[in-house]
Amino acid sequence: MEIPIALIDALRHAKHIAVLTGAGVSAESGVPTFRDAQTGLWAKFNPQELATREAFARNPKMVWEWYAYRRELIARVEPNAGHYALAEMEQRAKNFTLITQNIDGLHERAGSKNIIELHGNIFRTKCFREDTRVSAWLATDEIPPRCPRCGSYMRPDVVWFGENLPRRALDQALRAAETCDVFFSIGTSGVVEPAASLPFNALRSGAMVIEVNPEETPLSDSATFCLRGAAGVALTQVIKALNSRL
Questions:
Q1: Is the bond into 144 cis (omega within 30 degrees of 0)?
Q2: What is the DSSP string of 153-200?
Q3: Which residues sit opposite 84 in a β-bridge?
Q4: 121 has which bridge partners?
Q5: CA trace torsion 84, 87, 93, 96 (10° rounding)
Q6: In Å, what is the CA distance from 163 to each residue of 54, 105, 121, 189?
Q7: pTM of the model
Q8: Residue 70 to residue 123: CA distance in whole angstroms
Q9: In the 8-state DSSP scheme, what is residue 246?
Q10: Are 94 and 14 a contacting pair, CB within 8 Å?
C-alpha cells in the first residue's frame, strides 16, 4: 500500500491529530459485532432487542447475562496491529485525541492514553436508576447486582439503542474534530450519527481527513486521502512511512 508523502508530512508537522475508530478496527481482533450471528444459547435473540432500557426493565437478568457473555468473548481477544499503530502515533504526536465508537477497551490495552469512548465501555458498570458509575459492590447471588447507594439494579456502562451519547464525551469529540490538523476515520461505516459527522466537521475546519476502510463510505468522496484496506495493514504502513521520513 502506497502512503501519500503529503500525509506523512502532515503527520510530522501536525499540532493536533484526531482519530475516530469504529467496529472494523475491533473486528480485526475477532470482536463480534452486532451484525454477527449469535451462537449457542443466544442464537434466537436479536441483539437490538437486548440492548435497550426497555429490554432491561422487562428482563434485567437476561440482559445482564447477555453482556456477561459478550464480556467473556471480548476478554479472550487481543489488540491488533491497528490498535498498536495508533498507540505509537499518539506517542509521537504533540497532541492526540482518540475517539472510539467501540466498547471493548482494546485501545487502552494497546497503550493509547487520551481516549474518548462515545459508546461507553462494556467492562464498566453503572446504576440503572442514577446513571452513575459503580466500581465496587457487595457480592451476592442476585443477578444483576444491586447499586450500593440506592439499591437499584446495575447495568453495563454502554450506550443502548434509543439513548443519547454522554454529553461530555460528545462535546470533547466535537472539539477535537474542530481543532485538529489531521483527522483519521478508521473502520467505521460513516452512517451512525453523531459520530459520522465528525470527519465532516474536521474538513470544514480545514483539517486533512484520511479514511481507512476496505469499503467506500459516505465520507469517501470528501476525504483528502482514502487508504483502502484493513486498519492493521494501513496504519502499520503509515507508521513505517513515518519512521522512514524522520
A1: yes
A2: BEEEEEPPTTPPPPHHHHHHHHHHHHH-SEEEEES--S-STTGGGHHH
A3: none
A4: 157
A5: 130
A6: 11, 20, 15, 20
A7: 0.92
A8: 10
A9: -
A10: yes
Contact 202, 178 (CB under 8 A): yes
Distances (CA, A) of 100 to 86, 108, 149, 175, 194: 12, 11, 30, 15, 12
For residues 198 and 174, the answer to whether their CB atoms sit within 8 Å is yes
Of residues 244, 219, 239, the one with CA closest to residue 85: 239
In one-letter notation, the amino acid at residue 90 is: E
CA distance 86 to 181: 16
Cell of 244: 522512514
Give all strands of the β-sheet with 115-117 in edge-to-edge order. 115-117, 96-100, 17-21, 182-186, 208-212, 225-227
pLDDT per position as a tens digit, 136-159: 888 889 999 999 999 999 999 999
**83 part of the active site:** no
Q: Which of 194, 181, 187, 177 is nearest to 211 (CA)?
A: 187
DSSP class of residue 214 equals: S
pLDDT digits (tens, 9 = 90+) for 11-21: 999 999 999 99
